[in-house]
Amino acid sequence: MSARVLVVGGGGREHALAWGLARSPHVDELVCAPGNPGMATIGECAPVSVNDPSAVVDLAAKLDADLVVVGPEEPLVAGVVDALQAAGRLAFGPSAAAARLEGSKAWMKDVLVSAGVPTARYATFGAGQEENAFAFLDTLSGLYVVKTDGLAGGKGVVVTESIAEARDAVRAYLTGAAFGDAGRTCVIEEGLTGPEVSLFALCDGRRAQVLATAQDHKRAFDGDVGPNTGGIGAYSPVPFVGADVVDEMMARAVLPTLAELDRRGANFRGVLYCGLMLTPDGAKVLEYNVRFGDPECQVLVPRVASDLFVHLSESASGDLATPIELSATSCVGVVLAAEGYPPAPDRKGDVITGIDRAGEHEGVIVFHSGTAHDDQGRVVTNGGRVLTVTAVGADVAQARTRAYSAAAEISWPGVHYRRDIGAQALS
Ligand code: AMP
Ligand code: GLY
Fold first, then answer.
1. Does the domain spanning 3-93 belong to CATH 3.40.50.20?
2. What distance in angstroms lies between residue 295's CA and the mean position of ligand 2's atoms?
3. Is residue 102 within 6 Å of ligand 1 at its C-beta?
4. Domain residue spans in the chain?
5. Closest ligand 1 atom to 289 CA
6. What is the CATH number of domain 121-190?
7. Which atom of ligand 2 is nearest to the CA of 231?
8. Which residue of 12, 23, 84, 109 shows the fewest CB atoms closer than 10 Å?
9. Which atom of ligand 2 is nearest to the CA of 294?
10. pTM, full prediction
11. Residue 303: which residues within 8 A CB-CB, separation 6 or more?
């Protein structure tokens, strides 16, 4: 088969997906929408407004795409996959009904509990229910977690040991002060403790295959301090997550969740990203996302030894048949960020040097996120998370050494990155 594939999105995750798809002998044309300067080196880039289902359908029709791979959560929640399927296109990713798993934390918790998945005790409250929410907080001890229901770009979660702060968050959410109407429903959970890891499973509605484990680094600075980011580095696999935990989570979380979603008419095809906490009482699901993580995708895809196009197509068509093969490598990804990130992705337009030299290092691939071309065609920063420098190695230690020596080749004014990505896996 010689397939035309459209990748929707323009971040590091989509660059990694495009890179993996381009390696397939089945793929002979790759278009990225909107893509980025890194993706432009492996396929054509086409402008599109990714959250507009009809715009994506029109582009897929113009290209006569055989497979459309949707990377980010917003287009999934907006129903881009539904619109593509209705137009007769094969599309990788869940329907809007199934993407609600990420779009609504209250609904996700309800699914988890119905499916019997191990998860934190919780309750949901709406506008005007402050007093009930405060009473529920009083039943928890020690660590309080207050979350806004809807997508809040990773900003809608407060984890605190202070009940006063937890009450303030409840008030801010329920009155609409924090996130307007989108935040007027909140989920309160008991706080869990333990290392946080992720498990990625490819799903076809009923069946699932383990893709890999990974660990993200959310805080901006070394030693897990500083403000939260979208993810500032990752590695895969996580050596301290045993095969027994993976098997248990497939059996007790992923498969029952697929069955419960199917029962609710929300058949889940795509990648299920399970955010887990390894608590003293065993692994529990903190959250589900309905897409690959960014930067986790950048450290998963380089480890896939079998044909990514085949796997994503089988997931999309509801028939996962071909076993996923992973290379026996570890992969570490270090995110190089622009000055001021986080919170501000404001500094842009600095010329980046050394990307090609970095890419020549053994085992290294540089994925683009926040880059652009200037009017002279040079690659410049476009704010936020700019690049993910990934390296595969025989183990995490070798992969880290390779990633950091490649990262040292790259520079622009204000570039910064954590020096301890993957360090937890060494001890
Ligand atoms: P979420 O958006 O639900 O993934 O939450 C963001 C982050 O908040 C997670 O990655 C955890 O670090 C933390 N978190 C969420 N729920 C809990 C919980 N029940 N106990 C402790 N930490 C939590
Ligand atoms: N890196 C975390 C996420 O993609 O949600």
1. yes
2. 7
3. no
4. 3-93, 121-190, 196-317, 330-426
5. 4
6. 3.30.1490.20
7. 1
8. 23
9. 4
10. 0.96
11. 212, 236, 237, 326, 327, 329, 330, 331, 392
